[in-house]
Design a protein that fits this description.
Elements (H helix, E strand, L loop, with lengths): L2 E6 L21 H16 L5 E9 L7 H14 L1 E12 L6 H10 L3 E7 L3 H6 L6 H13 L5 E7 L6 H12 L5 E6 L7 H7 L8 H17 L3 E4 L2 E3 L6 H7 L4 E4 L4 E4 L2 E5 L3 H10 L11 E6 L2 H13 L6 E2 H8 L3 H4 L3 H7 L3 E4 L2 E4 L1 H5 L1 H5 L4
Parallel strand pairs: 1-2, 1-9, 2-3, 3-4, 4-5, 5-6
Antiparallel strand pairs: 6-8, 7-8, 10-11, 11-12, 13-15, 14-15
């Protein structure tokens, strides 16, 4: 029962911190790319009608695709897969790229969840991040989404910016809470090699982010989100009751998902794989290539078989991100023939003694201290 991730690689502008597989100069390819993506969906589906519980249009900026293209892609999914009647179908969007008729059209096509990249409510921080929208555009996008019938919205923010103060971070949190979304994602800035921001750091144009300040900002977010009725269900994600992101839960539960589109990654049938990154190469592969066995298409660039040790480690790392669920020791044993403590002798006990993990019944979960030091925990399962 794989979830589907559909990658849309087009952007109006590539932001200073972004290292995703996106392109700002290939907009003329959008229609032919949509056709290639439909061809890949059909190829991978192979008429087997596998049940699909969630679909996620990620990018890039999926909202740059026409509503007609989004509808055609979803119709192709329905033709090749058994799309669950309750399927969560998410589309990422940037404020300023949508209007009410467009939102009504994608809603009619089947999209029932929107995720807006807000990043900040402070204009100077948006400029620093090289975002093209204003916070006024965010407010307008949320209002239009409600008018178009969307009842499931996610808003993203970024914290840990160089020089970001607690006052300004609190302002961003208050501003998006006032918009009453069902879901909020908060991501700590990571300066990735090859990005403009990495060049600025290397050239001394900006100071490196302060991890202590970021930890303080995260702690403030914990308090504010709890005070507004949000459940902290994953390290970086909060939801109102009943609005956890079902698609991302498939990642965090280490379940199967199919990644389709240029540069997409997938995990299915005991393998991880990724597709060719360049959209023109992807399109050519799909126009000329022959089908391969499930779950791979003719655009797959690399396939990596997962050993039992790989699968156990990935299960530990992904499921520990789920703060309430954690790792179920009985389910782990049923899958791998060992409990986590047997698979990792001494490690889990040490992490518990150090106050980073806790046992709650049959579940192994991060402690609140572990939230802040999660990478140190995950390192032990690599």
């Amino acid at each position: 029962m794989p979830s589907l991730y559909l990658h849309i690689p087009f952007c109006r502008h590539r932001c200073a911190y972004c290292d995703f597989n996106t392109y700002s100069s290939l907009s003329e390819l959008k229609e032919v790319y949509a056709a290639a993506l439909c061809a890949e969906i059909t190829q991978v589906a192979a008429k087997d009608q596998r049940l699909v519980p969630t679909v996620f249009f990620g990018g890039g900026t999926p909202s740059l695709m026409s509503a007609e293209s989004i509808g055609t892609i979803l119709d192709t999914v329905r033709a090749g897969f058994a799309l669950s009647p309750q399927a969560e179908i998410t589309m990422e969007a940037n404020p300023g790229t949508v209007d009410r008729p467009y939102l009504e059209a994608v809603r009619a096509a089947g999209v029932n969840r929107l995720s807006f990249g807000v990043q900040s409510a402070n204009q100077d921080e948006l400029i620093f991040l090289e975002r093209e929208h204003t916070f006024a555009a965010v407010i307008e996008a949320v209002e239009m989404s409600r008018q178009a019938g969307f009842t499931n919205l996610n808003l993203d923010l970024i914290y840990g910016l160089p020089g970001q103060t607690m006052v300004r971070w609190e302002h961003s949190l208050q501003a998006i809470l006032a918009l009453e979304p069902e879901h909020i994602s908060l991501y700590c800035l990571t300066i990735e090699p090859g990005t403009p921001m990495h060049r600025w750091l290397r050239n001394g144009q900006i100071e490196p982010p302060d991890p202590d300040a970021a930890a303080d900002q995260y702690e403030l977010a914990l308090q504010m989100m709890a005070g507004h009725g949000f459940s902290h269900y994953e390290i970086s994600n909060w939801a109102k009751p009943g609005f956890q992101c079902q698609h991302n839960l498939s990642y965090w539960r280490n379940q199967e998902y199919l990644g389709l589109g240029a540069g997409a990654h997938g995990h299915a049938a005991g393998y991880r794989y990724h597709l060719v990154k360049q959209p023109r190469v992807y399109i050519r592969r799909m126009q000329e290539g022959q089908a391969r066995r499930y779950p791979w298409s003719s655009a797959v660039a690399e396939v990596i078989p997962l050993s039992r040790a790989d699968q156990m480690g990935e299960t530990m790392m992904t499921q520990l991100r789920l703060l309430q669920e954690g790792v179920d020791a009985a389910a782990f044993q049923a899958q791998f023939g060992q409990t986590p403590t047997e698979a990792y002798p001494g490690i889990i006990e040490t992490l518990i003694q150090n106050g980073l993990l806790q046992l709650v019944g049959e579940k192994i979960r991060l402690t609140e201290r572990g939230f802040f030091l999660s990478n140190q925990v995950f390192y032990h399962f690599v």
